[in-house]
Amino acid sequence: MSTTAASPAAAIPASILEKVPRLMDELPKHSKPAALGDKVLSYGTAGFRDNADILGSTFHRMGMLAVLRSKKEHKITGLMVTASHNAAPDNGVKLVDADGGMLAQSWEKYAMQLANANTEKVVEVLDTIIRTEKIDVDQTGNIFIARDTRVSSEHLSELAREGALLLGGNVLDFGLQTTPQLHHFIRMWNHEQYNKGDWASEAGYYNMLVDAFKQLTSGVDQKKLEMRTPLYVDCAHGVGAIQLAKLAKDLGDMLHIEIRNTPEDGELNFECGAEHAQKARKHPAGFSRDADRGKRACSLDGDADRVVFHYFDVQGEWHLLDGDKIACLFAGFFAEKLKTLELASEISLGVVQTAYANGAAYNYLKANNVQVAMAKTGVKYCHHKALDYDIGIYFEANGHGTVMMKDHVVDRLHKMESTLTDEKKKYALANITAAHQLINQAVGDALSDALFVEALLIQHDWSIAQWDAIYQDLPSRQTKVKIADRTVVKTTEDETAATAPEALKAAVESLVASAGPNARAFVRPSGTEDAVRVYAEAETQEGADALALAVAKAVHEHAGGIGDAPSAFVA
Ligand SMILES: CC(=O)N[C@H]1[C@@H](OP(=O)(O)O)O[C@H](CO)[C@@H](O)[C@@H]1O
Ligand SMILES: [Mg+2]
């Protein structure tokens, strides 16, 4: 095959060393730390995550990979420095793709090959990626970087920047941002419709949210809004507190926000935040039964891409409103607007859940004629499945989720604008387009999701208890079991039933069958921890607890449990 100078193939060097001889000097300065030992780093559900001390080389190399991805796509890509809801000494990388979503799954293998390569093999891996993906290395590579508040984050983002510069990339470092903000910037800058607009910056992000919130609450008496009680936000001592303070300032009297658990007053994610509230089923530190009865509250996680709501009722009992309840609230809004606009048969609406969704949420959606689909655990699977619908809502029970509207739907709605005369329809249309503006289309976003929840509570004139009452969660229990090799546990595609080992499959089936009506249980190997997770639901809390423990014992017995059989729950 003949190539001309203009052909991209012409710029593919036999080795990257031809272009960047300095690599030979620079790579050994960031070689894999001895402490990493034989450990294989894996690009898990949302990226690499480990103790920050062993991630230096990984960050340096991921800076390079982000640049290669950018050169390949001819668009901006990104790198977020965060370990989300994990402990303060940890850190991690989340790579952002050109559409503002997560890194394409087809590139995760490159991330792993690079991160795990011995120093002398890094050039070889880079060359393979460049050759396989036919990357013109002379192309411009542009990446955006941001980081959370961890002590290690600044240094690690600097290493990523160095790696990126080494491969000739241009780097724009946004400093402290939430993960969804970085996704938003990249989506906006790469989107031909938005890239020259006002929303493609940090200030633009707040403007976009505040303007959409204003539109969604415009039908409400402004005095009533000003008098409304505040939303108390547990920020997990993370970056969400800093960014939310800026957003709250712009919201002014439209919504009063009280920020708790800031980076200054405690350890990141320790006994607080969305993961703690949802997994341990405990109110966050900084909130108390006596002082906070009746207050509407929510918890973010360490990088503010998850949110769950909660409150103490007048009796002092604590209630959690998880991702399922948020999805149901959102689904109700879109179903109603589509009905008013007589578009329900033309525009498909669906909610994507995982096996962890409470059975009562499923029943609620079905009773309200909303389509429901199941995806494997992990937002990248949910996101993918949600694309089957014109308006796809996905939420994991842990509070990570969003709503995506297809471009053709947005176009269709904009075209309708000039044709409508009916006031009700005009209002519905304005609402649905404002919701599209408010909800982060790139990725789950705690700040945008929380504002949408608040807008809908205001529209319904509901208290948090009234929203909670749309359905009653079936009692459930989660726990986990350590076994020698968790890969021996196999499940069906949707993860609701075990398929191996055979004895475990039979044991779970028989335990569920004898656990009463509406009982359900499943086991699956965790994708992020060295354990098998157990989930059980039943008519009563005692029933769910008993079923979870019996299933945990069955995992221990039939799948090679380590140590004593389980006798208590592990969060
Ligand atoms: C039950 C549960 O909450 N699982 C979490 C957890 O995955 P596991 O594969 O269950 O470890 O971490 C994922 C990444 O944050 C998140 O997407 C998922 O929902
Ligand atoms: Mg997170």
Spatial sequence of strands, sheet with the most strands: 1-3-2-4-5
DSSP E strands, number? 19
Q: What summary fits the major beta sheet?
A: 5 strands, mixed
| Count of DSSP H/I helices | 19
The helix content is 25-40%
Task: Outline the low-pLDDT stretches.
Answer: 1-8
Name every ligand kind in the structure. 2-acetamido-2-deoxy-1-O-phosphono-alpha-D-glucopyranose, magnesium ion
Mean pLDDT: 94
Shape: globular
Q: Please identify which CATH superfamily of the largest domain we are dealing with.
A: Alpha-D-Glucose-1,6-Bisphosphate, subunit A, domain 3
N-end to C-end Cα span: 59 Å
Number of domains: 4
Strand-residue fraction? Answer: 15-25%
Organism: Thraustotheca clavata
EC number: 5.4.2.3
Cofactor: Mg(2+)
Keywords: Isomerase, Magnesium, Metal-binding, Phosphoprotein
Task: Provide an overview of this structure.
The radius of gyration is 24 Å and the shape is globular. The protein has helices spanning 23-26, 56-73, 108-116, 122-132, 153-166, 179-190, 202-216, 222-227, 239-251, 273-279, 323-340, 359-367, 379-386, 407-416, 423-438, 446-460, 464-468, 502-513, 541-558; strands at residues 48-51, 77-81, 90-96, 141-147, 169-176, 231-234, 257-260, 296-300, 307-312, 318-321, 349-353, 371-374, 391-395, 401-405, 476-481, 490-491, 498-500, 520-525, 532-537. Residues 1-8 have low confidence and may be disordered. A hairpin with a 6-residue loop joins strand 18 (520-525) and strand 19. The N and C termini lie far apart (59 Å). It has 571 residues and is α/β, with parallel strands linked by helices. It folds into 4 domains: 11-202, Alpha-D-Glucose-1,6-Bisphosphate, Chain A, domain 3 (3-Layer(aba) Sandwich); 221-321 and 445-472, Alpha-D-Glucose-1,6-Bisphosphate, Chain A, domain 3, CATH 3.40.120.10; 323-442, Alpha-D-Glucose-1,6-Bisphosphate, Chain A, domain 3 (3-Layer(aba) Sandwich), CATH 3.40.120; 476-558, Alpha-D-phosphohexomutase, C-terminal domain (TATA-Binding Protein, 2-Layer Sandwich), CATH 3.30.310. The chain contains 19 helices and 19 strands. The strands form 5 sheets. The chain has a 5-stranded mixed β-sheet, with helices on both faces. Strands 7-6-8-9-10 form a 5-stranded mixed β-sheet. The structure holds 2-acetamido-2-deoxy-1-O-phosphono-alpha-D-glucopyranose and magnesium ion. Residues 84-85, 301, 303, 305-306 line the site of magnesium ion.
